[in-house]
């Protein structure tokens, strides 16, 4: 897009991101998203707003009791991973109706052609697109509303969300252009680190996903040490030893995935990891990776289990987060209604 619109620098530096309570958290969600959320909270130069996007989760059918459980467990996961509800705003999406209200306006801004290009819809709808929900198709417009209802300037996400972020930018630009305003920021995606795309342990060409039918394809944040070790031991690899430089991983997706996971967990870059492990066989590297994964994930899963013993405390945190979120979102929605021409706004 080349139109002359405002840059995000005119807005309060604010981060928004969300995770769907559509199942248990995976290592992909943790490394690609949550760990980055904590970094941005601690960095201190942003207001940070993090959300359990339950309205997104129901774009594919969810059992109501499981959805309630997954939402609270995800909240526990955020806190256990280091999100501090006193520093960040933490809430579930459906409690802040301004998301859905702004999404309707964005449904009227986004073009059918834009939505039809979204690869996640094609992946998730599969061969049976006619039977997919309208919500699944409109998902990226709701995601744009999630972000823009806070005038968020930065959005940390995994690589898989890049296209949706571009659509969010297009929606902001078109809204600003259509209404002759500079009201919405053109948000920057923040896609950084060694694990922006964690792949399935069974297939290096597919992303690790909480809804993959094969549990062996992913590491869940609630897996115990034995399960993590078993899944890594069985992870698909190739017969070669590890290379000493990153370019040696180019045509080896499964090997690259395991090295990336190691680097992200160890907070090292890939070249530094390969300087240490280059020349080793997987029979030696996999136990190193298991030990590291258990050391990093066990404290988080233990804390999640502890927090889940008192769901009243989790609900109180979500209540308070929703109130703080609405304090930001309500005036932005009201101003949007005024711009669009709604009487009474
Ligand atoms: N494999 C991954 N590698 C890196 N980042 C990932 N994310 C998800 N999978 C990976 C990031 O996690 C955040 C939350 O994602 P989401 O739950 O909203 O939806 P998703 O991207 O569709 O994740 P899943 O696990 O694949 O969920 P399902 O199976 O329900 O669709 C996002 O920032 C995402 O980039």
Largest sheet, strands/sense/barrel:
3 strands, parallel
Q: Total number of β-strand segments?
A: 5
What is the distance, rounded to the nearest whole angstrom, between the alpha carbons of the first and last residues?
31 Å
Number of domains: 2
Show unreliable segments.
Answer: 1-7
Instruction: Give the name of the CATH superfamily of the largest domain.
Output: HUPs
Overall CATH architecture of the largest domain: 3-Layer(aba) Sandwich
CATH domain class of the largest domain: Alpha Beta
Shape: globular
Strand order of the largest sheet: 1-2-3
The chain-level structural class is mainly alpha
Averaged pLDDT: 95
- Rg over CA atoms, rounded to whole Å, is 21 Å
Describe it for me?
With 345 residues, this protein is mainly alpha-helical. The protein folds into two domains: 8-196 and 310-340, 3-Layer(aba) Sandwich (Rossmann fold), CATH 3.40.50; 215-306, Tyrosyl-Transfer RNA Synthetase (Orthogonal Bundle), CATH 1.10.240.10. Helix content is 52%, strand content 6%. The protein contains 13 helices and five strands. A three-stranded parallel sheet has the order 1-2-3. Helix 7 crosses helix 8 (162-178) and helix 10 (253-266) crosses helix 11. Adenosine-5'-tetraphosphate binds at residues 19-20, 22-23, 26, 28-29, 32-33, 157-158, 160-161, 196-198, 207-211.
């Amino acid at each position: 897009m080349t139109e002359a619109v405002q840059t995000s620098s005119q807005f309060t530096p604010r981060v928004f991101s969300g995770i769907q309570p559509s199942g248990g958290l995976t290592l992909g969600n943790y490394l690609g998203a949550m760990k980055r959320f904590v970094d941005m909270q601690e960095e201190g130069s942003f207001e940070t707003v993090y959300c359990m996007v339950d309205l997104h989760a129901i774009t594919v059918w969810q059992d109501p009791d499981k959805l309630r459980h997954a939402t609270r467990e995800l909240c526990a996961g955020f806190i256990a991973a280091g999100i501090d509800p006193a520093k960040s705003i933490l809430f579930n999406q459906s409690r802040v109706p301004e998301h859905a209200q702004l999404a309707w306006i964005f449904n009227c801004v986004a073009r059918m052609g834009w939505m039809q290009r979204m690869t996640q819809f094609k992946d998730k709808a599969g061969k049976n697109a006619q039977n997919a929900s309208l919500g699944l198709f409109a998902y990226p417009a709701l995601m744009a509303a999630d972000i823009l209802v806070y005038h968020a300037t930065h959005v940390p996400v995994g690589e898989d969300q890049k296209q949706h972020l571009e659509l969010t930018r297009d929606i902001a630009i078109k809204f600003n252009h259509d209404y002759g305003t500079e009201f919405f920021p053109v948000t920057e995606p923040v896609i950084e680190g060694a694990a922006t795309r964690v792949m399935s342990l069974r297939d290096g060409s597919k992303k690790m996903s909480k809804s993959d039918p094969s549990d062996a394809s992913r590491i869940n944040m609630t897996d115990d040490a034995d399960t993590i070790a078993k899944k890594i031991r069985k992870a698909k690899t190739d017969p070669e030893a590890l290379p000493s430089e990153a370019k040696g991983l180019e045509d080896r997706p499964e090997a690259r995935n395991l090295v990336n996971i190691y680097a992200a967990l160890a907070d090292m870059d890939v070249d530094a990891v390969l300087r240490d492990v280059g020349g080793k066989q997987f029979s030696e590297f996999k136990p190193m990776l298991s030990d590291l994964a258990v050391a990093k994930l066990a404290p988080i899963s233990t804390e999640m289990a502890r927090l889940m013993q008192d769901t009243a405390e989790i609900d109180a945190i979500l209540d308070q987060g929703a109130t703080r979120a609405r304090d930001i979102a309500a005036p932005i929605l009201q101003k949007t209604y005024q711009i669009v021409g709604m009487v009474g706004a």
